Amino acid sequence: MKELALFLNNFGIVLNQTTSLIIVLSIIFIFSLVVHFILHGLVLRAFERRAKSSQHLWLQIITENKLFQRLALTLQGIIVNIQAVLWLQKGSDISAILIIGAQLWIMLYSLLSLFSLLDVIYNFSQKLTFASNIPLKGIFQGVKLISAIVIGIMMISRIIGQSPAILISGLGAMAAVLMLVFKDPILGLVAGIQLSANRMLKLGDWLEMPKFGADGAVTDIGLTTVKVRNWDNTITTIPTYALVSDAFKNWSGMSQSGGRRIKRSINIDTTSIHFLSPQEQQRLINARLLKPYMDSRSKEIEEYNRTHNSDTLSVLNGRNMTNVGTFRVYLTEYLQNHPRIRKDMTLMVRQLAPGTEGLPLEIYAFTNTVAWLEYEAIQADIFEHIFAVIDEFGLRIHQSPTGNDIRSVAAQLTR
């Protein structure tokens, strides 16, 4: 301000201190407006037009996240600070106020520029296959939180005119309180790093966590919560640290394998199990899927009985084919020939331990698709066929008595 007064005195213009201050502030204000117009009205507007018409993805992402706008505002704060140092008298109240205000502006928009830069990196990483599998959002949110705390301390220290070290040393006494307040973000940040490092979870994975009622696709992995869109379109939020401290099931391995497991049983009425009679064998040997087995099995049994001189007058002597064993072989062949069942994965039909519900016969196989609707249709088709053909083997499905069964028995008794 003194320099301006001396400069004007050379031309015979004498100004008092108040007038000089008004002129200097006007110069700073007008120059700031000119810089703002050039940056935002010309440069950034031209850049945005180019970004919209450009095929470069990074230009569009930068524009969407307002990175250059915030950098421009940071630059404007720096220019105001430089002008205040050059034009205003050092140590004056107005100089101190303007410089402190400009520095607070610079720190604030530097922080916002960092936020925009992290958003640009995150959005761009989601377009890359290898990076989209890493839960970067929680890590970036942790970096934002730490940066905001640091800048906040610096801004407060600048306002009160004290060193940031004094504030930080004072915060040491509040460490326990801060740990309590920021418990979830701290745990979430650590969990996010573990999820990323161990490749435990990524966006789009099918997550099942009954404790939190989650069963669906992961839509968001944040610093403190993970969002899961369940199959009924409800949204479940899970604390990020719970994915590390508790157990959960990730079905992504099934999706990547290309095969989804069928593991379902039918309960056979044990009173319907018996040895096959010659007539039943003759009927079943006409089945295309059973003919090779029936031929080889019959020869094997005949050879065994002849070698051991078995008396065939009693079924207790020698070996015989059972209807349930033949049915199990038939189901195995049926699955082997099914066009929607994977042959390179585990495929079997096995008996489980019998109980009050009969003899469980379990189908264990994998479909050649992981799509839910297709999988359910394939599984239903297989079991519909099983229920339709089981009578051909003289077997019955175990079923608890229904109201209709009770009425039929009562009708028989009243006749």
Automatic annotation (TrEMBL):
- Provide the protein's localization: Cell inner membrane
Sequence ranges assigned to domain Mechanosensitive ion channel MscS C-terminal in this UniProt record: 331-397
Entry GO CC: plasma membrane
Stretches assigned to the Mechanosensitive ion channel MscS domain: 184-252
Tell me the membrane topology, using the record's own terms. Answer: Multi-pass membrane protein
Molecular-function GO terms, alphabetical: mechanosensitive monoatomic ion channel activity
UniProt KW keywords: Cell inner membrane, Cell membrane, Membrane, Stress response, Transmembrane, Transmembrane helix
Which positions fall inside the Mechanosensitive ion channel transmembrane helices 2/3 domain? 143-183
GO process terms (BP): cellular response to osmotic stress
- What's the protein here called? Mechanosensing system component YbdG
> What species is given as this protein's source?
Dryocola boscaweniae
